[in-house]
Design brief:
about 200 residues, alpha+beta, two-stranded antiparallel ribbon, about 30% helix
């Protein structure tokens, strides 16, 4: 079961100058384009693990922060971590489900196997796998992969693509003309507001 997203090749040409970007210069033996290709492999790997479980019966557990987690979250992150450890053992990993490993390394992968687990467990498609690469604490590469609908967003300092095609935001001369979509109001609240809301509801 493989994702319906294109392989890395279509979008590599978009980021040819990526290899000259100062932020990514001198990345050990791994060239920037190799890291983009590898990030695509991570997305394929995580996506395959997640797709197996989408819209199937599964147990849903609650984490310490009361957010849901499933076998799909855990299997996808475990598969991506294994690929990183096999390919780039010197790289660090920060994962949503399994925590931090060599997080002080120069290059660190940040993984959220299912961002939007509530949507995932209820059968909606407003979820995705998030993958980022940090160099010395600065984000230099990011992927949002939705393997069920076959959409993959890739962003670097050089630009952003959707399934290999360059995209950008529309012109917005005034803030009141901006459009923002969120899945729940709590996303727009500060930590203090969330705590107050929780106390009021208890």
């Amino acid at each position: 079961d493989t994702p319906n997203c294109p392989p890395a090749a279509p979008f590599r040409s978009r980021f040819q100058s990526f290899s000259n970007h100062a932020t990514l210069a001198g990345m050990d033996a791994a060239s920037p384009l190799a890291l983009i290709d590898f990030a695509g492999r991570l997305a394929d790997t995580g996506g395959a693990a997640v797709r197996r479980h989408f819209r199937t019966p599964m147990e849903v557990d609650s984490k310490a922060d009361e957010t849901p987690v499933t076998i799909a979250d855990r299997e996808a992150e475990a598969a991506m971590r294994a690929l990183i450890e096999e390919t780039y053992p010197e790289h660090g990993i920060i994962g949503e489900e399994y925590g931090r490993d060599h997080a002080g390394a120069d290059l660190v992968w940040v993984l959220d196997p299912i961002d939007g687990t509530k949507a995932f467990i209820t059968g909606f498609t407003s979820w995705g796998t998030l993958i980022a690469l940090q160099k010395n604490g600065e984000a230099v590469l990011g992927i949002m992969n939705q393997p069920y609908v076959g959409e993959r967003f890739i962003g670097t300092r050089e630009g952003t693509t959707l399934n290999g095609e360059a995209i950008n935001s529309r012109a917005c001369p005034a803030f009141e003309h901006a459009r923002l979509g969120i899945t729940e109001e709590a996303m727009m609240q500060t930590d203090a507001q969330r705590r107050q809301r929780k106390v009021q509801g208890s």
